[in-house]
Amino acid sequence: MQAFTTLTGIAAPLPEANVDTDKIIPARFLKTIARTGLGKNLFANVRYKADGSENPDFILNREPYRKSEILVALDNFGCGSSREHAPWALLDFGIRCVIAPSFGDIFHNNSFKNGILPIRLPREICEKLMEDAKLGANARLTVDLARQVVVRPNGEEIPFEVDAFRKHLLLNGLDDIGQTLQHAPAIDGFEARQKAAQPWLYA
Predict the structure, then answer these.
(1) Cα separation of 18 and 116, whole Å?
(2) Paired strand residues for 194
(3) 173 versus 48: which is more confidently predicted?
(4) Contacts by 49-55, CB closer than 8 A, 24 or more apart
(5) Hey, is 70 helix, strand or coil?
(6) Whether pTM exceeds 0.85
(7) In 3D, which of 45, 54, 53 has the Cα closest to residue 23?
């Protein structure tokens, strides 16, 4: 998993509440277990017209937001079903951070596990960040995870809270497998001792 330290990037404003996981990645795209290739289907029902062409009114189809790395939304982002494809699709598109007043619990957990930083900030702050984002490429936001601040284009620093253990995992790029591999010497030692004492288990 790619580590998350400091991110400076274009932020896309999505002034909607209750954006559920089916809107993030519709159910018809859940047949794959691959984590790549889903970015093109992100927000498919609103990003594309019935004939498959792009909807020019949707934010991610406009410049400079095609290159967004941060998404600013409203309350209860990622509610709905537990599909892990939702953070996969965001990440494959290029989104590394989502800022909103609140999140669906399962989406919130899945985001951390996949290298996306979900930041909870008060609604009035999110609305200010959306106004910043509307200025386009010249109004990039900076997210500094080590210092736990979002830096607005005007230099104002907005602090945010994050669980200390999850912060450690993101800063070091550790997913569930990475956490386990940190204990590889102890695991290898246990297996060596077990193999010597109970060799029939390894026959």
Answers:
(1) 19
(2) none
(3) 48
(4) none
(5) strand
(6) yes
(7) 45
Is pLDDT at 183 greater than 70 in this prediction? no
Residue 155: DSSP 8-state: S
Asked if the model's pLDDT at residue 13 lies above 90, the reply is yes
The pLDDT tens digits of the residues spanning 92-148 come to 999 999 999 999 999 999 999 999 999 999 999 999 999 999 998 878 999 999 999
What are 85's two structure tokens? 């494809």
User: Which tokens in the block code for residue 200?
Assistant: 């029939």
Beta strands in the chain (DSSP E): 6-9, 11-14, 70-73, 97-100, 117-120, 141-144, 149-151, 157-159
CA atoms within 13 Å, Cβ hemisphere of 43:
20
Structure-token pair, residue 107: 């989406």
Residue 123: which of 73, 60, 86, 177 has the closest Cα? 73
Map out the domains of the chain with their CATH numbers. Answer: 6-172 (3.20.19.10)
- Could you tell me the CA-to-CA distances from 199 to 56, 87, 187, 190, 196 in Å, in that order? 65, 43, 16, 13, 6
Helix (H, G, I), strand (E, B) or coil at 31: coil
- 123 with 15: CB under 8 angstroms? no
Cβ atoms within 10 Å of 174's Cβ, excluding its own: 18
Q: Would you say residue 176 has pLDDT above 70?
A: no
